[in-house]
Design a protein that fits this description.
heterodimer; A: alpha/beta; D-Maltodextrin-Binding Protein, domain 2; six-stranded mixed beta sheet; 21 helices; 10 strands; globular; B: mainly alpha; MetI-like fold; 2 domains
């Protein structure tokens, strides 16, 4: 490892030692915002997203109806986008006029409401009834500031393999399957039935933490109480969800894959698990991973009361020089017409009840999933979910819980020991 | 009149030459600094300033998203020294470092020895050991992660052929270290081999001839002539791989099945110090910059200490040569 390479490594060390400074410099995508000048006629609005939100045609539409406005979009990947936004927000420079925030990060950002434009100033308060109550609630700061307006929701259903269910002697019809598991207890019981006759090497579900997170998503309060205190250790409902997950793992129902791992991806192709907790965007993921399984999948309702995994918000950082114009653009991009359009473009599920109940959504069927009425299933799930209090360390607590469940699945710790370590990790976070 | 007229220009000339002399003196004094200034200015901005600023941040409770932060003295450090996850990361880093450096350097020596002999298409072999170096680090990590997969990895498939059960490489402590060390070794062994090869080529042939006369065969020549003669190069590679190994980040980070966090496995079995720093600063939603800065400084000190030990080693080797 000679001078050139050691130089690079050394620089990496300095970079590591200077993470903080690097962020103060706040390079990020400063260049894209420089164009934003407060001029009556000519305004350039920058929009920063992760992944494609399907907005291109909407920008054109907006530019046509608002002469003088030019919209520029920049897209980064999920993790980079959010850490860049954190840097920009911290340094007061470099943010775009409109920033997307995923639900996993919304609590952390809305805990700093002064860093964002309160969209209530621009009349967003009157639009409240458009959104699902829980979606609306999650975008609010502690004093009711409107930090972000909802774009899409992930919603949640259970995707299952009809062929594997049949081999295990379970019903395959989606209505009958939904009836198998009115509750999570029943879901785990069904798993035991499945496991008794399952083909060799096939488990009932993919990952304990996916099932656990779906259960936690239906509990309120779960990790945080209304005052913002972390109540993981004292909340019996969290422990109940944990215990039920442990029961299922103990019964051999989990394949023990970590979501998005290589083995998980291969598991789709090989059909090594029969069910997976499925947000709307997962349909595309499964199709991409295992195109050959077309027609073998179907979709049933979640046990319990609906659910959600993913979905985003649009916010305007306080540092924006075009706050009024940007707020107007946010209202436009989250309007019912826009969300309906995006659903057609990308399949991202709208976060507004009126749209979820509309024909465009509820009539949507997916041939890959045996022509299941996926629009209706996901809409039902999103409508049934109740709002949950989420807090700033929600994401870190979830990481800790996933690790804890993995430790049991990998047989490294007993459930009791792993739970104790999970509680310790959570305590260190708060 | 004529005297005065002549005196005035001489006076001016004398003064001018004095100015020139002073300028020249300034030139000889100042110019060297100007010549080296670009490096030091850049080093100051990108090297020293971040270092000092990080030291300052490590004394505060700064959170990236919080509007204010306050001075808390050495609290981050005292917390860090009691933090079992930090020590766990230190042990992991040292463990992976030893597991990757030792086989890597031994293997590099052997390869260099082979390449040093008269082979057919020698240049081809010499260049091909460098191939792993030009491969993108991310590609290397992703492919090795696939190879070491639990259920469907190629390594486990091969192990199955000889009757060994699947090993969950990522989940175990030692097994994950072995997988990561394999990645590091694969990538760096050729590079070190070339360094050794260069050193071996400067060994005078007379030594080999003399040892051959004494009856030494290839292996004994290697042990008794080659290795002692390239000792300074060996020490150099040890130091460089120390610095590199202690900052190991990309390989273990990409080895994680879930890349959004930075815990290095469910039980933190292969979380390195750099990864722990990243977890505190950017992993998930923590943004705990004060603490991360303290980790950065501890890592810096750790590397400084180990490098100092290496420096002492180098000195003893030199005096042995003399």
């Amino acid at each position: 490892m000679g001078s050139k390479v050691s130089g690079r490594r050394q620089r990496r060390r300095i970079v590591a030692a200077a993470l903080v400074v690097a962020t103060v410099a706040g390079t990020g995508y400063a260049a894209t915002t420089a164009a934003g000048k407060e001029q009556a006629q000519q305004v350039t609005l920058t929009v920063s997203l992760f992944g494609d939100f399907g907005y291109h045609d909407l920008y054109k539409q907006y530019e046509e109806s608002h002469p003088g406005v030019t919209i520029k979009e920049s897209i980064q990947d999920y993790a980079v986008h959010h850490s860049n936004l954190a840097k920009s927000v911290a340094t007061g420079a470099g943010a775009a006029d409109v920033e997307a925030i995923e639900v996993g990060f919304i609590a952390q950002f809305k805990a700093q409401p002064t860093r964002f434009v309160n969209l209530r100033q621009y009349g967003a308060g009157a639009l409240k009834d458009r959104w699902l109550p829980w979606k609306w609630q999650q975008g609010l700061g502690s004093k009711g500031e409107i930090v972000g307006l909802g774009t899409d929701v992930g919603s949640l259903a259970i995707c299952y393999r009809r062929d594997l269910f049949q081999k295990a002697g379970l019903p395959t019809n989606r209505t009958a399957v939904s009836k198998l598991w009115p509750t999570w207890q029943a879901f785990v019981e069904t798993g035991k039935r499945f496991q008794a006759k399952a083909p060799k090497g096939v488990t009932f579900f993919d990952s304990g933490s996916n099932v656990y997170n779906a259960m936690i998503g239906q509990v309120n309060p779960a990790y945080y109480d209304r005052s913002g205190k972390v109540i993981v250790a004292s909340n019996p409902k969290v422990k109940a969800a944990w215990d039920l997950t442990m029961l299922a793992i103990g019964a051999g129902e989990s394949a023990g894959f970590a979501a998005f791992s290589n083995d998980w991806n291969t598991g789709y192709k090989k059909g090594s698990f029969a069910t997976v907790t499925c947000p709307a965007w997962m349909m595309g993921y499964i199709q991409g991973q295992a195109p050959a399984t077309k027609g073998k999948w179907d979709i049933a309702l979640t046990p319990g009361t609906g659910g959600n995994w993913g979905g985003s918000y649009l916010a305007v950082p306080a540092q924006s020089k075009n706050a009024a114009a940007a707020a107007d653009l946010v209202k436009f991009l989250t309007s019912p017409a826009a969300e309906a359009y995006v659903f057609k473009q990308t399949g991202n599920l709208p976060s507004q009840p009126a749209l979820l109940k509309s024909k465009a959504v509820s009539g949507f069927k997916n041939p890959f999933f045996n022509n299941a009425p996926v629009g209706q299933i996901f809409a039902t799930s999103a409508l049934r979910l109740k709002p949950q209090v989420i807090g700033p360390q929600q994401g870190a607590i979830q990481t800790a819980s996933s690790n804890a469940i993995q430790r049991v699945e990998q047989k490294k710790q007993t459930p009791a020991k792993s739970w104790a370590q999970f509680l310790k990790d959570v305590k260190a976070l708060s | 009149m004529s005297d005065g007229a002549a005196a005035a220009p001489t006076h001016v000339a004398r003064r001018r030459s004095a100015t020139r002399r002073r300028l020249r003196r300034l030139d000889t004094k100042l110019s060297p600094y100007l010549y080296i200034a670009p490096f030091f200015v850049l080093f100051g901005i990108f090297g020293i300033f971040p270092l000092l600023y990080t030291a300052w941040v490590s004394l505060t409770d700064r959170n990236l998203l919080a509007p204010t932060s306050s001075f808390i003295g050495l609290q981050n450090y005292s917390e860090l020294l009691r933090d079992e996850y930090f020590w766990n990361a230190v042990v992991n880093t040292l463990g992976i470092w030893v597991l990757s450096t030792v086989p890597q350097l031994v293997l590099a020596l052997v390869i260099a020895h082979v390449l040093n002999r008269s082979l057919r298409v020698r240049t081809f072999f010499r260049m091909s050991v460098l191939l792993p170096q030009v491969t993108s680090l991310v590609a290397v990590a992703l492919i090795f992660t696939q190879l070491f997969g639990y259920r469907y990895g190629l390594v486990n498939y091969l192990l199955n052929q000889v009757g060994i059960e699947n090993v969950n490489w990522e989940a175990g402590r030692l097994s994950s270290w072995i997988a990561l060390s394999t990645m590091v070794t694969w990538r760096w062994v050729g590079y070190n081999a070339l360094l050794y090869l260069a050193a071996m080529q400067s060994i005078p042939d007379e030594l080999y001839e003399a040892s051959a006369v004494d009856g030494a065969r290839s292996w004994r020549q290697f042990i008794h002539v080659t290795v002692p003669m390239i000792r300074p190069t060996i020490i150099f590679t040890v130091i460089i791989s120390t610095i590199g190994g202690l900052q190991l980040f990309t390989e273990p980070f990409l080895f994680q099945p879930v890349k959004s966090g930075s815990t290095g496995g469910s039980g933190r079995q292969y979380q390195t110090v750099s990864m722990y720093l990243y977890e505190k600063a950017f992993g998930g939603t923590q943004f705990d910059f004060g603490y991360a800065a303290a980790i950065a400084w501890c890592l810096f000190l750790l590397i400084a200490v180990i490098s100092f030990v290496n420096y002492l080693l180098v000195r003893t080797i030199r005096s042995a040569d003399a």
